[in-house]
Amino acid sequence: VHYGWIANTTDPFKLLPFWAMxxxxxxxxxxxxxxxxxxxxxxxxxxxxxxxxxxxxVRFQPWAWDNIKLFAHWLFFTCVLAGIAVQKIFxxxxxxxxxxxxxxxxxxxxxxxxILTLAHWRSTSGMLYSESExxxxxxxxxxxxxxxLFLTALSHKHLVxxxxxxxxVLGDYxxxx
Length: 177
Known about the structure:
Layout: H1 12-23, H2 25-36, H3 39-57, H4 68-92, H5 96-123, H6 131-143, E1 149-150, H7 159-162, E2 167-168
Parallel strand pairs: 1-2
Helix pairs in contact: 2-4, 3-4, 4-5
């Protein structure tokens, strides 16, 4: 049992802002879309909502971030409801050119955090591995057997397995406690 996923809180008044900040406008559009959706959509969404609550209560893997798989499925269905809300907004506007502008504005706001994150990553190093790590991986590939087994440190981006293609004894268990 691990309440609040990576927000590490059992307080719903802290958990709700965490999800609002991380999902953003899509969460609010989905709430509106839920009411516009038919019974069939709402009933189907409850399964996705169960995954969301389960991911906020139980940690299924040693690394807490692995629960993101549950949230990805929940988010897919949440985006469907958000799409229903956007469609209702578009349909309610009399002038279609205004509707297109509003919908494009909503899409921009809904995706802006992802765009800014990608821009930030690109402006920093843009590389997951340094040149020295790539050289070490090449050395490992050239100087060890392909079935060699390595004892590694606690990391999820280990060059031994990811770049050199060798098996590791200890991978990413740094979030076990």
